[in-house]
């Protein structure tokens, strides 16, 4: 039996909270996650994993200590492991994230109200 396809729009309609990535599929030691973003996140890094952002809708701004990059719909950016960054979205934004399984969204930053369950799925 062939694998089932995943409808991203249907998955995105299953949740409303911001900054709370949801697993939609495993990929070897990684996970594809969907997230809705709005406002500012926290400065953090992921010492054990690269983090790839594919913008599905809206504009994601990624601040780095030495500059920033705006990533628009249909564009992608990979943050190398260990690189400190701070995502933000002035207006609602939808992204797909690829990260090593078990990676916490706030990385090495202190646990806060923005820290989500790294095992949450839809």
From TrEMBL:
InterPro entries: Cupin_2, PKS_Associated_Protein, RmlC-like_jellyroll, RmlC_Cupin_sf. It holds the Pfam family Cupin_2. Residues 39-97 form the Cupin type-2 domain. This is Cupin type-2 domain-containing protein. The lineage of its organism: Bacteria, Pseudomonadati, Planctomycetota, Planctomycetia, Pirellulales. Coiled coil: none annotated. It comes from the Bacteria.
